[in-house]
């Protein structure tokens, strides 16, 4: 069983890897000017 901290770290690494693959515009996010 994983600890909460370990699970959060794993989730954070997963999200960072996914975010680095796309631009905000591709996710439907428009930059604020």
Q: Mind explaining what this structure looks like?
A:
The structure is a single chain. By secondary structure, the protein is mostly helical. It is 48% helix and 0% strand. The protein contains one helix and no strands. The protein has one helix at 4-19. The radius of gyration is 14 Å and the shape is elongated. Residues 1-33 are annotated as: Disordered.
Q: Give the strand content.
A: under 5%
Using only C-alpha atoms, the radius of gyration works out to: 14 Å
Helical percentage: 40-55%
What is the CA–CA distance across the termini? Answer: 45 Å
List low-confidence stretches: none
The global form is elongated
Structural class: mainly alpha
For the biggest sheet, the summary is:
none
Written as H for each helix and E for each strand, in order along the chain, the element string is H
Region (Disordered): 1-33
Features:
single chain, 33 residues, mainly alpha, 1 helix
Structural topology:
Blueprint: H1 4-19
Write a concise synopsis of the structure shown.
With 33 residues, the protein is mainly alpha-helical. The protein has one helix at residues 4-19.
């Amino acid at each position: 069983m994983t600890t909460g901290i370990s699970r959060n770290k794993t989730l954070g690494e997963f999200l960072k890897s996914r975010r680095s693959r796309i631009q905000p515009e591709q996710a439907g996010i428009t930059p604020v000017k």
